Inverse folding.
């Protein structure tokens, strides 16, 4: 969604076409933006006269027409002007996801493919192009930039830190803030342990009994989370809602809650949590990776080193209604710095 929002904004001043490497051939218009799904070979024919290739999540796959590798090679060979926005998956090593590793054949294959095929190709791409005047790397956070530099052994001297934009006009402040904030929400994928839902559930065991949590998401790990909830005797207070929330449903859902919880192991930014802050929820999160670049503890949200400290701070803030409302309002106001219009304008000017 955040990539589409960017394309929509860029289209206000330039002609934009979104190309998706695919085994299918399909042309359509999505929300006013032209989309072309085609093989990487066909895409290279179609972009030969483009003034700029703006790369988002252009992943590399083995033996597939969905792979972005031929496009990266085309840019190198033909000195094509490009900008690339690095979200994380393109440059993170598989070992950073060790919490998901189970020594299965599939996981071992993924490890070798990511660390010994994808990473070397991305390293080669940047080493051969980053010094060009017609290239630009963008990152959502300083943490993401330093992670990319460490993993690739490449210094991005010419780069920009521009977070993903938040639609602050759409995710606007709730009409009324709760006077007894006790309803917590988190929205996560259950496909990876990177979001540390186990820690979110553990947090609830440390909060008083009148605090409740709803966890929205889908994925293969849902059964393990349900079992953990039962094991910790939290069935009456913690509920998993196996549902994907689109943009409109997310906005309406936020209005029913007071706090957004994020216990992720690492994150290059955290768009959903900032949309929650923009909507008038108090953000409570473990302080790691990029968190301090977006949230100030006790001013625009709550940051803590672990779940014990996080639970203590949540109780302190939610039992002081004036403090709760001050942090929520300051958080909502701070999100205007990350508004779509403000962020997109920075991209256009560079």
């Amino acid at each position: 969604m955040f990539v589409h929002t960017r394309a929509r904004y860029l289209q206000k001043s330039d002609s934009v076409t979104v190309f998706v490497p695919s085994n299918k051939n399909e042309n359509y218009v999505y929300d006013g933006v032209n989309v072309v799904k085609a093989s990487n070979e066909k895409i290279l024919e179609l972009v030969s006269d483009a003034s700029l290739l703006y790369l988002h999540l252009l992943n590399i796959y083995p033996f597939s027409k969905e792979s972005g590798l031929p496009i990266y090679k085309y840019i190198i060979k033909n000195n094509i002007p490009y900008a690339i926005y690095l979200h994380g998956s393109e440059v993170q090593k598989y070992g950073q996801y060790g919490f998901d590793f189970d020594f299965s054949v599939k996981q071992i294959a993924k490890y070798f493919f990511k660390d010994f095929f994808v990473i070397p190709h991305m390293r080669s791409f940047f080493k051969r192009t980053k010094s060009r005047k017609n290239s630009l790397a963008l990152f959502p956070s300083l943490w993401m930039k330093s992670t990319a530099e460490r993993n690739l052994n490449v210094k991005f001297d010419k780069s920009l830190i521009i977070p993903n934009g938040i639609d602050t006009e759409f995710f606007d402040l709730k009409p009324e803030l709760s006077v007894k904030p006790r309803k917590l929400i988190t929205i996560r994928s259950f496909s990876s342990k990177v979001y540390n839902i186990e820690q979110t559930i553990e947090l609830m065991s440390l909060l008083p009994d009148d605090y409740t949590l709803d966890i929205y998401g889908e994925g293969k790990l849902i059964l393990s989370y349900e079992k953990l909830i039962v094991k910790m005797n939290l069935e009456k207070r913690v509920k998993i809602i196996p549902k994907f929330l689109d943009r409109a449903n997310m906005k309406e859902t936020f209005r029913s809650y007071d706090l957004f919880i994020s216990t992720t192991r690492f994150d290059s930014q955290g768009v959903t949590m900032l949309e929650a802050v923009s909507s008038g929820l108090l953000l409570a999160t473990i302080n790691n990776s990029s968190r301090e670049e977006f949230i100030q503890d006790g001013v625009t949200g709550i940051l803590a080193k672990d779940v014990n400290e996080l639970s203590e701070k949540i109780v302190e803030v939610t039992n002081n209604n004036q403090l709760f409302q001050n942090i929520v309002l300051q958080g909502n106001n701070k999100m205007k710095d990350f508004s779509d219009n403000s962020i997109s304008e920075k991209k256009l000017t560079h």
Notes: The chain has a mean pLDDT of 92. The first helix runs from residue 2 to 10. The radius of gyration is 21 Å.
